[in-house]
Amino acid sequence: MAKIGRNDRCLCGSGKKYKHCCMAQDEAAEREKLAVAAMATTAAAAAQHDPHLCDDCNEQLDAAANAVLALIDARKFAAAEQAAHEVLTRFPAVHDGYECLGRLYQAKGDHRQAADCYRKVIAFARNEPHLYDPHFIDHFQNLIDRLDSRSAAAD
Questions:
Q1: Which of 50, 110, 124, 145 could, after both became Cys, cross-link 95 (CB 3.0–4.6 A)?
Q2: Alpha carbons 5 and 58: distance in angstroms, whole number
């Protein structure tokens, strides 16, 4: 299927040009999709075991964090929030709980709280830079910058 041009009529049937109708919404959805893909790539790159934890604990952490993400994907936000706080309680020496909370708040549209959680993730990486990929902080800083701009636009 051919890509719709900015000046073409919108496919939604409104009769308006695409640029004056659904283009901004479609572009936002595409940016969000790219951000999720980038997060997954970063998570995969950072999937090495945390030296603070034994192998069994690392597996438990991975399972707990993946459970939170599955709840977020299922839009079960209350359960996801409770599970994310459990990750924070059980594994306070690692960033994963804050990353889960950030993803939750981002999915809920609470950009300020998501950015605050991601700042805490960056703090973990800055405290022990030898444990993190060099692009880890950049990825989360980019997320924070986008979320902060959305928060400012909402005000």
A1: 124
A2: 48
